[in-house]
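Researcher: Let's run the pair from yesterday's discussion. Sequence first, then tokens, for each.
Model: Starting with the first of the pair.
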Amino acid sequence: MLYQIANGAVRFADKTVLEHINFEIRNTEKIAVVGRNGCGKTTLLKLIAGEIDLDKRDSDEDIFIAKAGNPEIAYLRQIAFDDSNLSMEKEIRKVFAPIEKMRDELEQRAKALEVNYSEKDVKTYTNMQEHFESIGGYFYEKEYEMLIQKFGFSEEDKKKPLNEFSGGQQTKIAFIKLLLSKPDILLLDEPTNHLDVETIEWLETYIKNYPKAVVVVSHDRMFLDKVADVVYEIEYHTAKRYPGNYTDFVVRKKENYEKQMKDYTLQQKEIKRLEMIVEKFKNKPTKVAMTRSKLKAIEHMDKVEKPDKYDSKTFHAHFQPEVVTGNDVLLVQDLQIGYDKPLSTVTIDIKKGDKIGILGGNGLGKSTFLKTIVEQIPALGGSFRYGTNVQIGYFDQQMAQYKSKKTVLDDFWDEFPELIQTEVRNMLGAFLFSGDDVFKTVDMLSGGEKVRLALCKIFKRRPNVLILDEPTNHMDIVGKETLESMLKEYGGTVIFVSHDRYFIKQVSNRLLFFEAGLTTEYQFGYEQYLEAQEKKRMEEEERERQRTFAKKSVQTEGVKKAKKYYNPGKEKSKLERKLKKIEERLEEKEAQLEHWKQELQKPENQSDYVKLGEIQEQIDTLEMEVLADMEEWEQVSSELEA
């Protein structure tokens, strides 16, 4: 057990956020924490991080937090850099201070051993070197460069001061620092925010292979399916553990609920039957013993609690377009989109009832395309034309930052003055603005509440074409599922941008994919896109194998021409032979290493610091060669497996 909370509770003033929390982190588990917005997921992460304390209670319960040893816990929290004028490179490299200090100390100790040798100093140096290797001392630079690239930063970005980066980019920089720090428990709160699809897919693999524990809060269902092997759901202030990924959790929760409800119903029937017998015979002297036994049977029953209903409260609006469009909704031909220069060129023919999902990397023109077709910015070239009777409902990401001093009631009513108050209250109530909530000012609302208010206004107008830019941002999973159902049932046309792959898969029947300067249409939706991406990946791997094969052919054949065909069987045999040679080489070098380490311990060498230095130099050289051979072994093994 790496970390444990037993019977924990967190309260702020008179408000209970968490109670009866039993939570465990075991070894290298990848744990997902799910639940409704405001249920306490972030509070749980702050509790694990030590930012808040357990509630103190007078109770017979055993209440505690236990840790195995002193695990390092790191949490991706609100961005707060000490010096925003510092360059990105200098900020990130702060995380290497301990490892670079150890590297410098190793160098100093090696030099000191050349002058003043002792067995104690050699042992200290050897232990420190082994620890340095175990924490990635020989490879941290390589991982640093890889993370910079994967998160979309260039060489030029390294020198830029932090204050020149956007909020999303600063979050990425903090994320890189966190990953490079390699804590024992990594706490992540919505890590896929601000990341494009390609980076999310890479992050899934990185976290799954992370050698230590991870606790992640996310509403990205596909991400949780790929990453999690345990799910904790927070519902009604407490947490329940489910083994498996998110899909497993959904199935198990449903099964558990149905089983408990069935057991509860059967037990209630049995109690009612026994009580009827008691009631019928309680006044008959000859049946006293029997009625007492029935009452005792009821008393000694292990009572089954009635299961809590799912916390599925959400907005709802089953609406259809007021006016029906013609079959041709939007024709886009060679449309150049961008500001100073074209970001991409789009051609697509959208028909009535299409659900067009738009996917792609950040900054490639997805939102710009939507702004262009709603005429917020001019096209740089090409054309687009709407069909007959088109009425657009447009949702912009910025609506989550909408500001107004008006109350929710007045803000909505001012846009629909023809409605009576009952109609306004009913419409707002459908989007979870009920009771005193309607008297909050818009500025008091959370991002998710502002999104609901914006959607409420859009759906009230009953447009026949919805153009939505990241509508599920700020929504929890239940909210996303609700919007999915609404859009699938909606009889009009939908064009939407999203980074939520599960949402796109559920809603879209066609997909428009943006990549550097290009757009590709997938007529059969997300599954066709996945197949194309897999084919592309396999073709790239095949080209890489061909390049490797051709390069080796040139090296071995000299002036001979490269062969015009590729023989997989022969290539496999060559790789197997190469792997065997590397293994033989490793075995030989490891034997040499063992020899020199034994030499290091011999009494006759203990006082000869010159000899000792030579031996250590041999050991250092061999260890570096072994590391290089291991890297080559992994590469060849991967090629052979492929």
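Model: Moving on to the second of the pair.
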Amino acid sequence: MITLRQLSLQRGGKPLFENVSLTVHPGWKVGLTGANGSGKSTLFALLRDELHPDTGDLDIPSRWTLAHVAQETPALPTPALEFVLDGDAELRQIERDLLAAEAAHDGTRQAELHAHFDTIDGYSARARAGKLMAGLGFSVDQLERPVAEFSGGWRVRLNLAQALMCRSDLLLLDEPTNHLDLDAVLWLEQWLRTYPGTLLLISHDRDVLDNVVDHIVHIDQRRIMLYTGNYAAFEDQRAARLALQQAAYEKQQREIAHLESFITRFRAKATKARQAQSRIKALERMERIAAAHVDSPFTFGFAEPERLPNPLLAVEKVAAGYGGRKILDKVNLVIGSGARLGLLGPNGAGKSTLIKLLAGVLPPLTGRITVGQGLAVGYFAQHQLEQLRPDWSALRHLQKLDERASEQALRSFIGGFGFNGDRALEPVAPFSGGEKARLALALLIWQRPNLLLLDEPTNHLDLDMRHALTLALQDYQGALIVVSHDRHLLRTVTDEFLLVAEGRAQPFDGDLDDYRNWLNEQQRAANRDAAPRATGNGGNAVERREQKRQEAERRQQAAVKRKPLEQRVRKLEQRMEKLHGEKTAIENTLAEPHIYDDANKDRLKETLLRQGQISGELEQLEAEWLDLHEELEALAAND
């Protein structure tokens, strides 16, 4: 297990951890949360032995193999598949030893190494590496391409694939979904759920945290707090803890006020001096409780657009692509003033191409685009972060957009994005990716667009900023089209989906769960097409009848296996629905101020205890429900 005991650490004179203790058991999947700069990445550096604590102890089993994603990828001539295989250090060492044994004509040594190679599944390693790369969006023809030919975002995926290839006991992942699209995120989420080792995951994607982790470590105010359950359970538990803290704080403030009032009235009276001194000492000994606060540092919203033509855009029989090569064809789309579209589709199908087409960045190859009078497009894409002037401040970027606005108005606006005080005047060059993304969003919002085109807007943004952006987009009065791997954002700010696939952009009748099923069906179809035929078209009638008989038998066996699984799923769903209802009632009770009165202390304790029991049972039921659905999907795939 991983153990931190009374650990303290400072960096650059700033204390990050003070006497923290933590135990992580083998097999746990732990999500790390906390504000930017709270110490999440520093904790990873401690675990990788790149930093050492000032005081206290950190213990990790010496036999554990640790894997993490490298921050840089050199421009190597190595083929991508070989680069990923390098993640399995033991495999590579055996391969080198085999070459040496063959050169020395040492048959005994070769036999030993081949046996070891078989034990670690070495003969299937290339297939496993290829499967990892396919899951992360690499096509077959990319497997042999040199690493140097890939862009920065694709090299990050290669680093991730290399880390996953390692047969590790401990896997450290720091924002692994930042450069992934939704398809790859869904695949990675499934992979992490079945990962057999201990996982520590820093992520600002609440869906990933909800679906993968079973514990949350929250870092706040130089302390580490461990919570059981996923991110939703953490939010519930933390809200209850903060409510208790606030109630205790308010009670203590009343006690302090009473003591101070007594001291003020009687310290000058000889008959009461001793009692006054006693109360002064009581005040000095009192351990002060801090007021609870969970305020977001970000507060902003979209001003109402000056004009809102309807329709804003009309796309008729448009083809789009690059260098004469079509990516999309026969696109017909009318964007009304209230449109709120999420774009879905496999990696490389043309989602970003469609966004660029609508933004006017990419001219159509054929067809016509009609623009509404007064159209004001706000287009956000990751490359715009690189277009920020590194020597300019956040304030100067905003002043360049609107030279007539007062400095105070601009500073008040930019402060809502976390650029307060002198931070608004500092050059952009040393800003983190998240800070640059916040600035790019601020510049876009200031221009009051009536059509927002957002291509992965949440990359690099932390949970607080994602929440603030989600709230702002919910109140936005214009039209919205968004590409995002953040399912929470898609669910809460869009009303309908457009599926971009096979060169078309068409309405998708379903939700994100239906899209996951669609992806699985596409993958199953691809596997069926790739699989060799058991019998050719020239088989005789007897062979065809036998084949049909076997298929019918398999379907019957699958149906027999499915029935008890489906019955168990229905029972689980009934129980989960009942628990969710009880949980909602408890949350409503905890939202009532009187529950924290002294008279209700026992009732509060029982309510919080029951809330924890429900969260724990729901976690177990949901895990079983997911496992059963995986079994049902596997049966359907083989049906």
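Researcher: Give me one sentence on the second I can quote.
Model: The longest helix spans residues 541-590.
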